[in-house]
Amino acid sequence: MAEEQGFSKGLAGVVADATSVSQVQGEVGKLIYRGISIEELAEKSTYEECVYFSLYGKLPTQNQFNKFLTEMKANRVLPKTVEAVISAAPRSAHPMAVLQAAIAAIGFDEQPVNLKNEEHNIHSAIKIISQLATAVARISRERRGLQAIAPNPDLSHAENFLYMLNGNVPNKEEARMFDVALILHLDHDFNASTFAARVVASTEAKLSLSISAAIGALSGPLHGGANEKVLEMADAIGAPENAKAWVANALATKAKVMGFGHRVYRTMDPRAKVLRGMLEKLVASKKEKDTYETLRIVHDSMIEELSKTSKDYIWPNVDFWSGALYRLMGIESIDFTPIFAVSRVAGWSSHIVEMWRDNRIYRPAAKYVGPADDKYVDIKNRK
């Protein structure tokens, strides 16, 4: 059924607002943050520098960056109220539900929004970006029955997170790979969680509550939970030698192959290229290679089979390789989506800060499809 004028299911193709934070060029497989390609930032930058770039709209001088790093590190410690919320959650709860509650708890002491004070809003964002990483690590350790680990101010954002999560300072190679993964996930224009954050923030709700709403949107398997599902798929396949037949059966039965396809990209997701390259380097240094081999064969078989029947391939997206990378770093799959939030919180915050410069509450129209002139029936006469 053709879309009616002014109506688009899922808001596909609808321009809801303007942004300079990021742009997805889906037809050519390109992603830029404020004009710079994701590949160049992944090669030359760091997550912290990209956070500054995203929030302030310009690359920092060395003095500006030093002050920014000091501020991020100084804000890593969670408020006691947030720690209490995390401790009160049952260990059976999904970490995204606990994280949403924990970030909302930051709002207990957060000052009301002041649209005229952008510098204040950016400092509030820096605090949440720093504390969210600590919250994710603490939630994971409490779920596993382990003692929480305090932040280490001598470590970078990526190093410190892995240290708080696993209890060991990572080697430089793995820390850099994780840092790049954070860069790749930092923003992606008006995806579901970013749009959710913007909708809530447009009411002038507190930043923490807008971020909490975004976390709720990210928790869904059609958004942030996809990389966890990719590994479940790889585990269900069982071994690399089963992968080719599994793909053939999946295509024959029209079963969903997790990690393939994207609402925006019509070619290879540029983030997937970078992630696969890092994964291949990490696999070479590890004993466990079956997960990568299974995914590689699924990838190659999908491309091979689809090329026989369609001119438009369904390409792998960012989620196809990221989970395998995290698994080789000793990270449990249930923590993959919270780690997505560790990165994306900077993008959410940047969009909110940007939007508040010229804020207007979101109020889209709805297409009504119910009856137009029904009558009320008294309860005793209803059948």
Walk me through the topology.
Blueprint: E1 22-25, E2 30-33, E3 36-37, H1 38-44, H2 47-56, H3 62-74, H4 80-88, H5 95-106, H6 118-143, H7 157-166, H8 172-184, H9 192-201, H10 207-218, H11 226-237, H12 243-252, H13 270-284, H14 290-309, H15 318-328, H16 336-355
Antiparallel strand pairs: 1-2, 2-3
Could you explain the architecture of this structure?
By secondary structure, this protein is mainly α. It is 55% helix and 3% strand. It has 16 helices and three strands. It is globular.
- Name the helix and strand elements from N-terminus to C-terminus, one letter apiece: EEEHHHHHHHHHHHHHHHH
* Annotation field: number of helices: 16
What proportion of the residues form beta strands (DSSP E)? under 5%
**DSSP strand count:** 3
The helix-and-strand class reads: mainly alpha
Tell me the distance between the termini. 35 Å
- For the largest sheet, list the strands in their spatial order: 1-2-3
Largest sheet: 3 strands, antiparallel
